[in-house]
C-alpha cells in the first residue's frame, strides 16, 4: 500500500508509547539489579527501542479503505506541528523544582539518585556521620527512613524516563525531559482522536489538549502524569489497531496478536508509573472477557501482555516503594480486593457465557436509548452535587491544616475538613470549559447508544476505560483539593476523555448537517456544517485558553538548578552534613543525592549539646563537619567565633499557587535559603 499519509500518521502516533514501554522493560530490571548506568542503559535500551519500533510500530495498520488512502498531509503535519509547538513553549517555561515540598521535587531527587548510582535503596551512611546517635534523623519529606537505608516515596516509572535526560545533560537535561514527554502526550492523543473520530479532526482535539492549563502545567515539572498519559493513551491507540482485523481464538500468530500483546503490556506498565492506574485497568479485564466470549484471537495476547506489565508494576511497588504503599494501605488494600473481585467475576461471566455468547445490547429495542439517557443522568447528578452536600474528611491532619491556611488566604469560611470533591466536575469546566463538558456529555450519550446498537464496536474499549475513569475520579478525586495541584488527578485520562467525546460530538453534528436531506443545495449544507464545526471547536478552545493564561506568566522555582550547584561546591568532598533546623525536610535528599555527601537532620530538644557531640563524632571519623540551616542564627551558636557562614542556596522566585474556588491565575513567591558553615 506504500507510505501514505494515513499510514504514517498511524505509526507516528503509536510510536511514543512503544518507545517508553520498551525503555521501561529493560531499564527497570537494571535498576532492580543495581546496574543501571549510561552504558548498560545504552547497550540494552537502544536495541529494545529499535526492536519495539520494528516489531510493533511497523505492525500498525494503515488505512483500511480508500478514503483513508486519500487522506491529505495536512492533518498529520498540523497535529505534529501542534505537538512541536507545545514542546517549544513548555521548554521556555520549564520549572526547576528541586526542593521537596510536593511531588515534582521528590521525582527529581529520585531521578538524580538512580541516574548517578543506578540502584536502590539509598544508604544512610550513618557510619560517616555519628552512627546510631539518637538525635539524628535520616528520612525527610517523601523519603522514608527504614532501618539503615532510605526508600523514595513513589514508583520508578517516571524517574526511569527522566534519567535519560540526566545522563545527557545533568540537572538541566533532567528538567527538560517533561516538556518533551508532555508533547508526546499531545501527539498520542491526536492519534487516538484520528482513529476514533477521523484524522481531519485530530488537530482540533490535539490543540484543545495542548492549550489546556493542566497539560501545560504538568509538562513543565518532573511529575509522573506526562509519562502515565503517554502510556495509557498509547495503549488505547495500540488496542484500536490490534482490533481492526478479526482473528479467531486459537489461530496462528499474526501482527494483530502482536499489537494486542503490546497494548496489554503498555496498559500494565502504567502501574509502574502511578499506583492509581490499577483502578483504570479494571475495565480492560472486563473487555478481555468480552473478547474471550466473542472468540477473538486478540484476547489471550492482551491478557498476557497485561499480566507482564502488572508484574512489573507489582515489583516496582512492593519491591522498591513498599513504605509508600503501606502509607496508602487504607485505600490501596480495598482497591486490591476490588480488583480481585473483578477478575473473579469476569472469569465467572466468561464461563457462564462461553456457550451462550454475548447478550445483545439492542434487545429490547429501547435499551440503547435508555443507556444514553443514563449517561446524561449520571453527569447531571455529578454536576448537581455542590447543591446537595459538602464533602468532608481528608483523613490527614496536615492536609486539613493546609486547606485551612489556603481558605484564610482566599478569604473563604475556614472549614479545614472540607475536601471540595463535590466540585470535581466544576474543575473540569475550569480547565476545558463548560461548553466542552456539555458537548462531551452529549457525545458520550450518543456513543453509548451506538455501542448498544452494535454500530460502534471500535468505541467499546475506549468508552469502557474512559467512562469508568471519569466517573470514579470525579466521585472521589482523592487528592489535596487546591489548584492547580488537584488538576493532576484529571489530566491523564479524565480531561482527554472530555475533549475526545466533545470533538466526536462536533464531528457527528457536522456530518449530520452536511447530509441534511431537507436542505437541497449542497453549498448551503457545506456552509452550515463548516460553521457548526468552527463554532464547536471555538467553544472548546476559547474558555480553555482563557484559563490557561494563568500559567503563562511565570516559571516555578527558576534558579534552583544553579543554586544547587553552588551549594554542592560550598560543601567539601569529605564533608558530613548536619542540618540543624527543620530545613532537613525539604533539603536532606538534595544534599545527599545531588551533592553526594552523607547528610542527617537534627531532631533534638537540646540542640546545643547534641550538635557539639555530633560534630565531635564526625571529626573522629576523619571527616569535615558542615552545619546547614535555613537562617544563620540557627548555626551561630554551634560554631567557633569567626567561622564563615555562607549562603550558597539563595533562590527568590515564583512558585505554583494554591486556589480552592477558582482556577489559578498567577504565581506565589518561593524563597529557598540554605546557609552553611564548614567547621574546621
Automatic annotation (TrEMBL):
Parts of the chain that traverse the membrane: 12-36, 42-61, 73-93, 175-197, 256-275, 302-320, 332-354, 366-384, 428-448, 460-479, 491-509, 530-554
Keyword match Transmembrane helix: yes
Keywords assigned by UniProt, alphabetized: Membrane, Transmembrane, Transmembrane helix
Residues forming coiled coils: none
Keyword Magnesium belongs to the record: no
Protein name: Membrane protein
Organism the protein comes from: Streptomonospora alba
